[in-house]
Write a structure and sequence with these properties.
Elements: H1 2-19, E1 36-37, E2 48-54, H2 59-63, H3 65-74, E3 79-85, H4 89-99, E4 104-107, H5 112-117, E5 124-128, E6 134-139, H6 145-152
Parallel strand pairs: 2-3, 3-4
Antiparallel strand pairs: 1-4, 2-5, 5-6
């Protein structure tokens, strides 16, 4: 009985890992398509990009707003900050347009973009270099300015 429980647990862990395949570091970043832009569409050609996956009910996501504003302000010439949410526009637009100062906001209502990036949780960030290559993925809280400078080569 104990053996069966261990096998079941291991198989559940494996299935969870397979179903949450994240975009690989060093691979080409998925294009940001099939989203509804609540802001202007950013010019992403030749610029580094920070894609921040967001949900308004997540307190950690909300606490990152000031930090993302500071990042975007400091790196405005070299970094495009894109906020992606899977919530209805009427739910997130008032919050994001009021709170974010330097932003591009996209709604991924179908979840295709989140799936193509392999987003396992929020907040979740992906850093893409100027050539469109994924350089960093992970928990947004662990991405600080010195790390970002190193990643995008500033």
């Amino acid at each position: 009985m104990r053996r069966i429980a261990i096998i079941l647990l291991l198989s559940l862990l494996f299935v969870g890992t397979v179903s949450a395949q994240r975009v690989a570091i060093g691979s080409r970043a998925p294009r940001i398509e099939r989203v509804e832009w609540l802001s202007d569409r950013p010019d992403m050609v030749g610029r580094a990009m920070l894609v921040e996956f967001f949900h308004s009910s997540n307190t950690i996501c909300r606490s990152r707003i000031d930090y993302c504003n500071r990042l975007a302000a400091e790196l405005t010439d070299s970094l495009t900050l894109v906020i992606v949410a899977r919530e209805p526009e009427e739910q997130i637009a008032p919050l994001l347009f009021k709170e974010y100062q330097y932003y591009y906001i996209a709604v991924d209502s179908s979840g295709e973009l989140c799936k193509s990036y392999g987003v396992p949780y929020v907040p979740y960030s992906v850093v893409v270099d100027r050539r469109g290559i994924v350089r960093w993925t992970g928990n947004s809280q662990t991405l600080d300015l010195p790390t970002l400078h190193t990643i995008i080569g500033l």
